[in-house]
Amino acid sequence: MRNISRFRLMVAMILIVPGTLAAQEDFSLSAWYRGFESRTAARSLESLLQENKQALQKAWESQHDSMRIFLLLEGGMLHVTKAYDYERGMNYYLQAVRVADSIRYPLGEAFSYFLIARAFEDTGNPEKSLQFMHRAHQLIDPAMHTEVEALFLLALGRVYLATNQLDEAQQQYERVLELQPDMQDYEAEAEALGSLGTLEMQRQNYERALELQRQALGIWRKVKDRLKEAQGLNTIGALYEQMKNTARAYANYKAALEIFQPLDDRTGMADAWNNIGVWYYRQKKFKDALANLELALGAARSAQSKAGLRKSYDYLSLTWKALGDYRRALDYREQLVALNDFIQKEENDQRLLDMQSRYTLEEKEKELAQTESIRRERERELAEQKRIQVYLYGILALSGVILVLIVYLYIQKQRSNRQLKEINERIESQNIELQNLNATKDKFFSIISHDLKGPLNSLTSFSNLLINHFDALSKEEIQGLARDLDKSLKNLFNLLNNLLAWARSQTGNIDFTREPFDISQVLEENRELLQAQAATKSITILSESPGVLMTNANRNSVTTVVRNLLSNAIKFTPVGGAVKLQAEKAGTEIRVSVSDTGVGMSKKILDKLFRIDAKHTTPGTQNETGTGLGLILCKDFVEKNGGRIWVESEEGKGSVFYFTLAASEKA
Predict the structure, then answer these.
(1) Which residue has the higher pLDDT, 460 or 584?
(2) Full set of structural domains in the chain with CATH
């Protein structure tokens, strides 16, 4: 718990004094990751998950995004390493990636990718693991984060070693040793030396392997890590056996056992007793071998160590056979066969689980790719915003598009008039209804033309000012104009998007093919998409649904409706308010609601909503602008999906927008 408190304190300090705690941050993050097992070993998974959930809620309420990232990562590790729920764990990791990217925190993003790589490594996908390991490594600055660099290099080396890429693994471990003078991370140095020793054992360079393992052992003794010291002695003993130095092998096994026993490490004790028993067996001292192997068997059973049990059964059978007691030899051989069968079944089951987990991870990787695509697009837009010249060309291009759209709408109007005239000539009884429809559209075109004309005049004024008085403007004035241009362009772009969507809907160019999908997932995706917008006003977005709610509709058009309603709710909700998304089944329908604690609407305004001939728009609580076209588009899309849309509101008490869709029994 002290590690967690220190980590939280560190994050809070980073938020207060950014950029001044690089060394402390580096140390704390490495210690936080390495201390995960010790922090969670004696706790129940349920209590750990509950504590993580509460801490995340507090981090969100206090807007400590850096703390939130690492609490998300801790939650992900709990799900992956304790509950083996890779889908939920990856959801936590993906949220951490998004938060880190949104606040420009490369170290948090790097740790997220690092843990994603570990998940792929655990499920037997080293290629994907290496891919994400490299991505994580590229995001950190080795000069500022030497201990994190060492942690990532050790992980890279481990994956290379597991895939028998020995040269690549060696390069990573040697780079860790090169960092040692700057970081003084003795644990990382010992791990690198021990791993290099294991690598040299695979190459059968036993003298070099022994030298490296001794160096690692010296460091474990220096930092007083008794468990690692004992494990190192066991490894050195095995090396001596390979080198035919049986006396030294025995001495190291005994020394390891003398450390394991006070620590009550049953797995280590089983390994050491097994090693000593096998040593006696090879010396043909069968009674001494039996004594140690029986002790090893008891410790292995206590620790539930399958490897220890397998070795004990194997050599107990061989020893009793050497002593001529074939019945006991057969008994232990049968226990060994049964254990091997059990282990094989477990491995087969684990292989199946790994395949399922790998599929889950690959599906989540697609979500990550989408997040990456969005991030790259945002970076591209930010780069473009820095170039004033690009703004000018963009204005001209956008003006051209808008003019084309106006011409297109005018042609559509003329065509509609001609069609109405032809119909009037054929069906006189429908004359009044068609004239009313034409008048409604005329009014709509007038409203849209007015909405387009105002922003275009502003954009023209901005562009003339930049073109004709560029040299006379200061850098601050240019930046101010650029911000105004950006705001105007975004407003025009939103209007243009809605206008194009409405026009395509009216002309039948949108495919409204229906298919079963989970409306709860659509609500959650839009909540995450607009979370950043809500955060700028400290608005809390709540999402409530009883679980999976399958509907039969066109997913893209329903997503557009939810996004418009949620964006409007944020717009008209004051700072510190709340917006709630809710979906429930009502008979054969799914009813979706978007409620806010905003300014509400009068009866007069309510009567004008959803009407094409009486468009109404009101500034948001922070003077956000709009066109009113979004609600018209929502009504059109809901009705084309066979649903209804309506609103309940009272001035000063907020609004609730409802719409319905057909329920689907198909899951």
Answers:
(1) 584
(2) 1-140 (1.25.40.10), 390-506 (no CATH), 515-662 (3.30.565.10)
